[in-house]
Structure formats: structure tokens, C-alpha cells
Amino acid sequence: MILHSNVIGEGNPFIILHGFLGMGDNWKTLARKFSESNFQVHLVDQRNHGRSFHSDEFDYELLAEDLKNYCESKRMSEIILLGHSMGGKTAMLFASKHPDLVKKLIVADISPRYYPVHHNIILEGLSQLDFSFVKTRLEADRVLEEYVPQIGVRQFLLKNLYWVHKGELGLRINLKVLKENVSEVGEALPPHAIFEKDTLFLRGDRSEYIMENDEMLIKRQFPNSQIITINNSGHWLHAENPQEFYVTVVNFLLIN
Fold first, then answer.
1. In the chain, N or C terminus with fewer CB closer than 10 Å?
2. Is position 85 annotated as part of the catalytic site?
3. Cβ contacts of residue 21 below 8 Å, gap of 6+?
């Protein structure tokens, strides 16, 4: 099966991979901006997310294989590949496995290392959304608020709501499988996974996902990489400071 995508613009192929519990549409505003610089932007929903297919299997090898199938279906080569968080891990693995297909790689606020599971409270909150009783987005927000006090995070999560049919809400994510496989999200990139082409790592100045002691590992597996900090931003750096994020990415892409 081929991943769902929203394609914006014309020009050089540029694929964006969202993070855990996200979807390609989260990037629509930035995609329109990138398309103005002669890029055809593909906002891809990874398996068990957005409008893409659901599967009982979920790990980075499969996510990278899904992306390979997507590129083949679109007859794309020499892509620009950007991934955020979980999408960044997928992008790193894909680039290391298929360096001939990736012209430049951008990784947003994630390093190749292992991360312990830290989504349990969010997943529990989403599990409490009983849509036989929850009939509006406001009601869903009130349920989630007991587990996720940050309004910005709740707004991000509630983008997964959709109308299954009139009067009944549902979640686009495959919540059951994602809960069962949440430990896969933090898995480290294999140590033999190396990508030697131009790579840009972006980190938020208020985020702890890329720390100073990650830099040696990043350089070992991505020897032609640079790490740039986006100001006034945390883990969702592309949403918190989109202008600086956009300018930094475009400057990187337009060099050479």
C-alpha cells in the first residue's frame, strides 16, 4: 500500500515527514512557503497516522520501506527529505539505506540516539476519548485536559479528530497499535546507518531532544552535517518559530 500525501507546488521533490501522533497537514503552511522556492512539497502521512493505511506492524524499518515504496510510486529521485522527531528518525534511516535517492537531509529536533518512552500520559488521555459520549471537539478537549494541561499540545493532538459520519467523531491515528508499539518510537538508529551527504540538524533552544553530548554521535553517523539552533522554540520548533525555521532550511537548500 502507498502512503497518503498532499502535494503542494511544482519543482524539485521535497518530502516532509511528521512526528509521532501528527500528520502531513501539520506542515501545510510551511509547505506553501517552501513551494515558492521551486520545490514540489510532499506532505506524507506515515503508516497508522493521518489518512495513510493502518497496520498491526510498526517500526522504523517498515516506515523507511513505506517511504521507498512512495518514492517509487511517484518515480522520484534526488529528493530533499525533512523529518521531525519520529519522522526525523525515519528520514535518517531512509537516507542511510538509500543515499542515492536523497540529495539533502534535514532532521528537526531529534538525534540518532535512544529515547525512553515518554508518551504514555498522552496516549492514556487519547484512550479516554469515548466517542459514544464525546460528541464535540470541545468535549474531547475537556477530557484530554485532565491528562495534557498544555493547550498547544492538546490542539496538536485534536487535529487527529474527524467525522466518521454525521454525529460521530473518531481518531485518524491507529491508537491501539501505536500504544502497543510506542517503545519503537524511541529506538536508536543502528550504529552502521551512515549518510555522508549534506545534512542539517535543527534543534529548539528550549528543547532537550538534541543535547551537546549528542553532537559526537551525530557527526559519527552524519559526517557532513551541521547543527543549528532555532531560537525561541521547543520541540515543535517549526510551529513555534516558523520564520526562522523556514529561512534556515532554505539557506541550507540553496547552497550548492
1. C
2. yes
3. 49, 119, 122, 126, 156, 157, 160, 173, 178
Task: State how far the Cα of 54 lies from the Cα of 3, in Å rounded to an integer.
Answer: 10
Q: According to the model, what pLDDT value does residue 255 have?
A: 80
Q: What integer pLDDT is reported at residue 167 of this predicted model?
A: 87
Q: Which of 85, 96, 111, 207 is catalytic?
A: 85
Domain co-membership, 47 together with 110: yes
Say yes or no: 18 and 35 in one domain: yes
Do 137 and 193 reside in the same domain of the chain?
no
* Contact (CB, 8 A) for 86 and 130: no
pLDDT along the chain (256 residues), means of 10: 97 97 96 96 98 98 98 96 98 98 98 95 97 96 96 94 94 98 97 98 97 96 98 95 97 87
In angstroms, the CA 141 to CA 152 distance is 11
Catalytic: which of 18, 49, 235, 238?
235
Q: Which long-range contacts (CB under 8 A, 24 or more apart) does 69-77 make?
A: 69/2, 69/3, 70/2, 70/3, 70/5, 70/15, 70/42, 70/44, 71/15, 71/101, 73/2, 74/13, 74/42, 76/13, 76/15, 76/101, 77/101
* Helix (H), strand (E) at residue 219: helix 215-221
Statement to judge: residues 97 and 18 lie in one domain: yes
